[in-house]
Specification:
The structure is a homodimer of 199-residue chains.
Chain A lengths: L1 H8 L4 E2 L1 H8 L3 H9 L11 E2 H13 L4 E6 L3 H16 L5 E8 L8 E2 L2 E5 L3 H8 L1 E6 L3 H13 L4 E4 L12 E4 L2 H12 L6
Helix pairs in contact in A: 1-4, 2-3
The complex binds nicotinamide-adenine-dinucleotide (2 copies).
Chain lengths: 199, 199
């Protein structure tokens, strides 16, 4: 957003994903990828219209209403994600994502607190989703437990899931499911090392 | 790959990211994103040429030579990534990524083993990179330590880094740096919940 304000003040009318990439430390492909999640803004060849893009992003960000996020699976990945999300939310004033609750099946983990979020028993998840107004659930449980967790979320009205478990989840068409796979990033990096290893 | 073999046998000459999405459980945007890392294969409007795409992916995958991966920071995130990478490599026969070593500054972690990979002291990282032929390093250390780790990697000849620490790393132009940020996925999901919350 800051970058677009600068460009607008400098009188730029269009900016390419290349330009945006240089100013944000992302590759042009990452800029395009990030912007595509919000809709088709750019036109091939002439880039993004600065004023229009700024307006759109403001519109999106202005919805500064807070979105409450839950996290199922307070294990290694879950706790690292929870700590990270909370750190990031503190740094970004306008952060709309608030991690409000974690869920686990291990009795030793129940009651743990990370900043404002607490670990609840997984069998209270349905109730807590409604009580706390959770709209997004991050799934960081083992693969065998992921479908059950997703089904409880769907039943409780959640429409957006971020799944880390290596399991193909079945959800109704109106539920948005993103599967995060950190090995994809690695695979694309492996591609870049291709030319290098003459060993 | 399997999917492209099927389509080729059925006599499909072109396939859209929509079609690929339906067959892989990804969204068309994810298909496009995944394929863009390997280069510009698709043409807007007519999709991907099945035979050409198959050939390209085979070319990429055929380089089945193993790429040795290192991981700096054997903490919550690091250990979750290590376990996951090793799990995935066992499931995918052609996996070219092999996590071979972890590095940490905490003496209690030195010597821990996860499957074939061992945790080494971070001050032996430069030596181990050469000895073990590590080509990619995953950085999962705290933000304050990330630049130092990246600099050691670059000095040791590593050309590809996957960084999780919330720090903007400086690397020479010939080093490929990918910054993974799991909150980006969350932000795009928050966008989808936008229309929903009338609360
Ligand atoms: N997508 C990726 O790139 C990626 C990376 C790392 C890990 N993973 C996956 O993330 C998941 C978590 O990994 P981890 O290393 O943190 O594992 P972990 O074993 O450390 O944590 C799993 C947690 O889930 C809890 N749990 C188990 N069954 C449950 C249930 N039915 N309901 C609620 N909680 C339950 C456990 O008590 C534990 O706390 C695994 O599925 C792993 O494969 C994915
Ligand atoms: N990008 C994302 O979406 C995302 C998600 C979760 C965590 N993170 C980041 O990943 C990093 C790790 O998170 P975590 O929860 O696993 O933290 P952690 O504290 O559990 O693990 C950090 C590990 O790094 C080790 N370490 C510290 N200094 C080191 C050095 N100089 N050299 C080698 N090892 C060193 C520590 O001993 C520890 O084992 C943090 O920077 C965190 O912000 C990013």
């Amino acid at each position: 957003m800051r970058i677009l304000e600068d460009l607008d003040q400098k009188g730029w009318t269009h900016v390419s994903s290349q330009d945006l990439g240089e100013r944000t430390g992302l590759t042009p492909a990452q800029v395009r990828k990030d912007l595509t999640v919000f809709g088709e803004f750019g036109k091939q060849g002439i880039g993004y219209e600065v004023r229009f893009l700024k307006q759109q992003l403001e519109e999106i960000l202005r919805l500064n209403r807070v979105v409450n996020v839950g996290l199922a699976g307070a294990g290694s990945l879950g706790m690292a994600l929870a700590r990270y999300n909370i750190e990031r939310a503190k740094q970004q004033r306008t952060s709309q994502l608030r991690l409000i609750a974690l869920f686990d099946s291990d009795p030793h983990k129940i009651g743990l607190r990370i900043d404002g979020a607490q670990v609840y028993p997984v069998n209270s998840m349905q109730e807590k989703i409604t009580e706390l107004g959770i709209q997004i659930m991050i799934i960081a449980v083992p693969a065998h437990a992921a479908q059950e967790v997703a089904s409880i979320c769907v039943k409780s009205g959640i429409k957006a899931l971020l799944n880390f478990a290596p399991a193909r989840l079945q959800v109704p068409p109106d539920v948005r499911l993103h599967n995060a796979d950190l090995t994809l990033e690695l695979q694309s990096l492996a591609f870049y090392t291709r030319g290098l290893s003459k060993q």
